[in-house]
Structures
1.
Amino acid sequence: MKKYLGIDVGGGSIRGTIIDKEGNSYFDFQIPTNPNFSNKEFLDSIYTVVKHCLAAVPADAIGIGTPGPIDIDTGIIISSANLKNLNNVELVAFVKETFHLPVYFNNDANCASLGEYYFGEGQKANSLVVFTLGTGLGCGLVMRGKVFNGYKGNGMEAGHITVVKDGALCGCGQRGCVEAYFSTNGLLGRYFDLTNKKLENAKEFFELVSQNDKNANQILELGISVFAEGIRNVIHLVNPDKIVFVGGLTASYDLFGKSLEEKVNQIIFPVLASYVKFAVGKSVAGSFGAATLAFQHFEP
Amino acid sequence: MKKYLGIDVGGGSIRGTIIDKEGNSYFDFQIPTNPNFSNKEFLDSIYTVVKHCLAAVPADAIGIGTPGPIDIDTGIIISSANLKNLNNVELVAFVKETFHLPVYFNNDANCASLGEYYFGEGQKANSLVVFTLGTGLGCGLVMRGKVFNGYKGNGMEAGHITVVKDGALCGCGQRGCVEAYFSTNGLLGRYFDLTNKKLENAKEFFELVSQNDKNANQILELGISVFAEGIRNVIHLVNPDKIVFVGGLTASYDLFGKSLEEKVNQIIFPVLASYVKFAVGKSVAGSFGAATLAFQHFEP
């Protein structure tokens, strides 16, 4: 059976997983990303992950998912809100020329969505929306089995829709985006605004929530209410029957999921509230999804 | 050549137009709507318009566009933000049984979008978004010539996406929707909040703007800035190459269009700003679009 290497570039790590079309995993490896990566440092890290994976298990093709905005036509990362120094990275050309394999490329959240559609909680959904809750907040749409690319792979940038006009500053440079309230950067940023205390990561934040810390609770409540409005916006525009949450923050879904789902159902049109269902996805969706980008081209 | 009756139900009027597939118009008629219409009064008005049109020019099929939420599967208007007393109106069954013609049904904004795609400013667009600026704010998406229905015809309810969290009360019962700031109801409502003065219609509002009335200018500026964020949300989610504005408020496009387009281009990802183009549509798009619902089923 053919094997496919999926590479998932997140704000926190670059992860490579080698799978077959049935979703069997043969090798899995990751290294941390650095928010200050130059183009060269970024490509060096990509090289390290691909090299290490292919040395362990040879693969027939490579799929890569990265943060946007990207250009899937030319295989370039134009820029990235969470890897600020990247600038027109010629990613696909580099990997193709270095490893002499077919390379397929898309938005990381689009890959995660395909992953959930093929192997996760999104199977059989007619119109599947996946939110990736990590350093940033990504989103993808799979309609009747096809990922919605939008223009050059920029489809469904739901992290960067405005819910709080003139609100908190987002990594993208604009104000009031959903990502500025519900993502690791958003929750920690708003917690810092309130307390002037810098937390290291989402785990630390959610530990405070578990300990009933008043400030952390307040920021989580704010984040839930903003994210609920953002989900409302997505539902009112594209009418999904299934919404799946993936990414690091879902480890704490028991601390926000019920409240989030209830809030969404209260503020959307009843006809859509009776239609849409929510679920938490599987944890390896990103790199699996990136691999599906590749195997879609090889296996019908 | 076959002829098709298109019926467009707006917050202000019910309009019937009889056209052929080339967009030639044979008859056009409208009567005002009443925001307090009961189901029966509404159906009586529909009867009047259809009867009057068909008596003038016989048609082969009827297409109807109405405000949502609707159920295109069962042909029912579930409810309407601007015709508040409507409740599960069995519209398609009524028109079919009364006039013995094939009847096709969709969201009014979806019809307007099809109208612009076939006969207006949206021709040849790859991914066309149409905003209907009238009593409320509607929106439709035509991708590669196909209207995006969403679930039961509720696709792209962009008037009811949240931009100003906890903002002004919208006709839908929620707060901070785009429609609550940029539509006839939204502009007049916000003007009333500011001045306690009740204006009759959008024309009166824009006359004040033309006269450089400070309060009207302030409300228009607010409306533009909220609508721009709403357009940002739509662009970041579905990546249209063309956006067309239709409906009554476009008569005053010279008072807000340039400012709106500039604001949108400032706040969206540059890659999308270089892709999307704006235009003002044609004025009869609603009823033409409703007619295209019908002729799509008869002529390839």
Note: Chain B touches chain A at residues 68-69, 71, 78, 127, 139, 148, 150-152, 154-158, 160-165, 167, 172, 174, 176, 225-226, 229-230, 232-234, 236-239, 241, 267, 269-272, 275 (CB under 8 Å).
2.
Amino acid sequence: MNTSQSQALFQKTYDYVRETSLLESTLALLEWDEQTGIPAHAAEFRANQVAFLSGLIHQRATNCDYGAWLSELANSELAHPSDSPVAASIRGLKRDFDKSVQLPLDLVTRTARAVTVGQQIWSLAKPKNDYAAFLPILKEIVALRREEATILSKNHACKYDSLLDQYEEHAKSDEIAVVFTELREQLVPLVQRLTNSKSGPDGKSIAGIFDVAQQQELSKWVATQIGFDFDRGRLDETVHPFCTTLGPHDHRILTRYFEDSFSSGLYGTLHEAGHGLYEQGLPTEWFGMPAGYAASLGVHESQSRLWENMVGRSREFWQWCLPHAQQRFPQLKNVSVDQIFADLNRVEPSLIRIEADEATYNLHILLRFELEKELIDGNLTCEELPSAWGDRYESYLGIRPKDDREGVMQDVHWAAGLIGYFPTYTLGNIFAAQLMAAAETELGDIPAMVANGDFAPLLNWLRQHVHSFGSCLKPTDLMEKATQSKLSSKPLMAYLTRKLVPLYG
Amino acid sequence: MNTSQSQALFQKTYDYVRETSLLESTLALLEWDEQTGIPAHAAEFRANQVAFLSGLIHQRATNCDYGAWLSELANSELAHPSDSPVAASIRGLKRDFDKSVQLPLDLVTRTARAVTVGQQIWSLAKPKNDYAAFLPILKEIVALRREEATILSKNHACKYDSLLDQYEEHAKSDEIAVVFTELREQLVPLVQRLTNSKSGPDGKSIAGIFDVAQQQELSKWVATQIGFDFDRGRLDETVHPFCTTLGPHDHRILTRYFEDSFSSGLYGTLHEAGHGLYEQGLPTEWFGMPAGYAASLGVHESQSRLWENMVGRSREFWQWCLPHAQQRFPQLKNVSVDQIFADLNRVEPSLIRIEADEATYNLHILLRFELEKELIDGNLTCEELPSAWGDRYESYLGIRPKDDREGVMQDVHWAAGLIGYFPTYTLGNIFAAQLMAAAETELGDIPAMVANGDFAPLLNWLRQHVHSFGSCLKPTDLMEKATQSKLSSKPLMAYLTRKLVPLYG
């Protein structure tokens, strides 16, 4: 092909993929609506709508002509330089196409069925603490994911990596394991040191009842202040907070409020607004194409954790925010910045991941990463999983679940087939600390800016060094370029130590 | 075809149409979401999503193979008896197919473009009172609709009827005109008599500020009490109230609240809940097929008007509802049933249709019906429209708009190409009164039931005589079967006279 032929073919491909994105974003609306108050009896028909649209999208994504265009483009001059938006999009689309045609339709269908059934059985078995009822479908799901991993693992050092790669492109589990092990070797003694301390925050300043309408207003106001653009987004309520994108200018964050929790709604908002800021910062002209995608789940999580924890749980954030919170909640009138800061940063080993504090959280993830890798590698059976889970909790956190409800059945992930997903949570925390350190090197005193409610310099730095790249760079390359360093647990450990040790005398 | 072949072909057609309905109901969700708080900058992409899905639906609806199936089915034994759900569905689908292929694509496209531009120009020209700016596009829209009417009018007595038929199937404008003229000849003197009276309600009992959160709760509670099923529906807020269906068990009503209006939010809810009750009463197994459609816009409007006005503005409704309203609004504490009943039924000639009372409302409709028919028949030009409008208002209501903002440009309908739509509003009022009279004949003292908050007998009667038929019968046949009478303005005039005259001494 000559240049103008390549460009015409790229334009045709672009138009085709952008059309597919109209269906994908409509599918996202069907799912958003399902999570924000769909009538009880409407769920079955909604599932039919979702299945039909998913089928249309699948047809388009596996269309032979489209695959041929991508092959031609991959061999054209447009595939260079490799980090241009055009080249990155061609590469990403071809990768997705190859993967979707590489997996037998039969396997895809059996997996889709198994994870639907898996989540149903899980939701029934968990409250009954009935791991035996969950075991057969879990075994089936693990077997199906291993089958998939075997097919996809040609280009990967181990089977697990081919699953991990679906959430964190190009990630290698042995490299991650090195950093995670380093992290664990420092986190376990830090957590012990903190929990053995005789002093420390007791949570009293944020105990009690907090009017939900006021929580809603504070959360929306805080999201606006950190830069979430409500002309291009919404904040709504749901059972499990999430963030979704319905168009290049339509980013929706969802949280939940409890009147007996000051922090759930607000930190749910900050976390999801962090995701939303990333989505709002992606290049809109590439919406629906890889150059407009987020780089990876780990990088996405770095944005949510950075705003939720490194900004939102800092002393300086509360210097700025407390007066605003006091206006809405009279019971905070006599609370000091130091008190609320300390109470929002209590460390306490616990059994439930989603309720964990910043320090222990990563230990919950690390052991899941180890266990799921062993499952896929064939070094652990589903029958052995509950006791391996208990042993690992005892070893890392010093506590053991009394049953499987608060143990191996607490998360939906494996029931939903999400194996290789957990490590992206801790990668997100590691990336966040690395990014924050790099931003401070360049911008200076970020805490002082936060104390003034001046979040724009930090957001602009993230826009420039992370958001604007879409997925043109590999996640590791993006992070190295932004932070001038390789993956390292040091900034995260330094941050946690610096913040938490003084709180515990 | 033998019987089993016909049945197999019908099943294939049913499956195909039900698949199309998955897209149509998804399109309805895109539109519902657009009206319930889509982010400001997201509207353009939403228009692309809507256009793409509309295109997919159009492709399916005009597919040649599908058309051939319908022709075969129309000639099969399944086409009899004609009022069976199967026969009615075949007939309705074939009718829609024939119409969609009868109109040249070029005309459809030009009309779609003109009404989009028309609404944009209207929304800019109306606040500036600039009819001259609106005139060219209005002329284009009228010309396009006349062109369409000419193509479709083979089976109709006049061009206008082929437009009317799209909203009220099989309706004949000359038959409607007879009844509308009768109605006008009685309404004009009734309104004069009421407005010349020296006594009458002054609206004071419902003046003042009404907490919006309490209005929301009262509205939702009332909707529940009259039978709207919130397990199969939702109540939300929007700028222009409407009702939409997103699935066989997903009916969404939307209203709007103003703190300085006690009645807007509540009567918006009652009106839309009336539509919603009809949708919830259609046979769900025929969802997406004509046997599961509402019979016509006029019949639909009869359901909304019946619940809004004949039930919701009755003295007995307020016997039941006032104590509940008083619990929420302390300012109603000393208001009597007679006072609030009277104040919610004030009659006053005014220029704006959507603010009109029950008596004058129909005069607003009648003159629009007369004018739009003259436009299509070629007896009136768009240039002459504003003065004809003013003359007709003066003649029917005794008042004349001082400008086109409160005159010919007040409604979006013609700018949106909706010509033939207006008469369905008054047909709805006429049908509602006929239905209510028939229901009373069969059920006895409905007002006494309403006074007890017992709405189920009336709803069940409507389910049995209207809702459950879908569109298996022609609207006129459905109404004659339910009411044992032909189209007549008598029950409506009797109802208005009985209710309103005593209020005006």
Note: The first helix of chain B runs from residue 3 to 34.
